[in-house]
Amino acid sequence: MADDHDPQDLNAEVPPKVAEEKKEYKFIRWDDSGIVARLTMRRPKQNIMNIEMLREMSDAIEKLNARDDVRLVLLDASPECEGYFSLGVGAEGYSSHLVFQMMDAFHNVFRSMNEISKPVLAIVDGIASGAGSELAAFCDLVIATERAQFRQPEIKLGVFPPMGAVVYPRVIGPKRAMEVLLTGDPINPQQALAMGLVNRVVPREQLQPTVDALVKKISAQSGPVLQLLKRVIFEGTWRPFDEALKRSQDIYLNQLFELEDSQEGLRALIEKRKPVWKNR
After folding, report:
1. CB 250: neighbour CB atoms within 10 A?
2. At a CB cut-off of 8 Å and minimum separation 6, what does 229 contact?
3. Is 179 marked active-site?
């Protein structure tokens, strides 16, 4: 059954054509060969994002659109970037001749994360600053280590983060968002946990076991149901209430109950057994 997967063996279910579709990227490492896809940022040492790196990220994530077998996406930083998740976009991203291209490339990463409708789990083991912090905040789940730090210093440069100004109020509430963005003060892991910016804070030696356990638990669920649930939660968070409620009802009644897995879950409940997901 699905929950018998060893967290170290999450590549057990590999569609035969995946290996043929592999694409080499310059600034990220991408592995979508199993039921959990992994996107690792690798632009040493600080994972400062340029336009090419951002385009690689959105391109990789978009490839999951037709992948019903993938349950979850992990987002982390390469060991080569020791101490950093990402320091955000480079200085060139603020120049007048590149700012539109940089913003468009950055926002496309967010759009692709939303459009695939698969939960995204960020693993932050170091400094996440500017766009790097916004990227983590936008993820559905965040596990941080005790040395993680979140920074939005833009106000000190005489600007503000346009994506952060939209993301943070919805993630941590408008009053906390105002304080974070108006002061530019760094946020330590415990503060991030208290304000709901991260789900868990763990010692570094407990990071991998914690991630493995959570991944195993989530990836044991029905892939299509996970996708529909993320879509409803996202729309409930970001759309006006009445519109979100109507959309949730529509997905629940007209899409969720069309799934074989939904029917299997109800049968398993009645028959007092664990469901066997077909992921359709």
Report:
1. 12
2. none
3. no
Q: What are the residues whose beta carbons fall under 8 Å from the beta carbon of 208, sequence distance 6 or more?
A: none
Only one residue has tokens 């941590």, namely 172
Q: Which of 201, 197, 219, 199 is nearest to 38 (CA)?
A: 219
- For residue 197, the model assigns a pLDDT of 97
Structure tokens at 184: 């530019």
User: What letter represents residue 135's amino acid?
Assistant: L
pLDDT of residue 241: 60
Nearest to 200 by CA among 192, 212, 39, 38: 192
Longest dimension (CA), the chain: 63
pTM of the model: 0.82
Q: Which three-class secondary structure state does DSSP give residue 128?
A: strand
Looking at every residue in the chain, the average pLDDT score rounds to 87
Class of domain 2-219: alpha beta
Burial of 97 per CB tally in 10 Å (0-12, 13-18, 19+): exposed
Among residues 125, 274, 277, the alpha carbon closest in space to that of 210 is found at 125
| pLDDT tens digit sequence for 207-263 | 999 999 999 999 999 888 998 999 888 888 877 767 756 776 777 678 876 888 888
- What are the residues facing 40 on neighbouring strands? 29, 76
Catalytic residue among 20, 56, 134, 205: 134
Choose, from 21, 82, 115, 154, the residue flagged as catalytic: 154
HSE-CB at 184 with a 13 A cutoff on CA atoms is 10
Task: Residue 205: name the closest of 115, 145, 118, 252 by CA.
Answer: 145
Task: Examine the residue annotation and report whether 154 is marked as an active-site residue of this protein.
Answer: yes
pLDDT tens-digit map of 15-46: 444 443 467 899 999 999 999 999 999 999 99
Written as six digits, the tokens of 6 are 């060893």
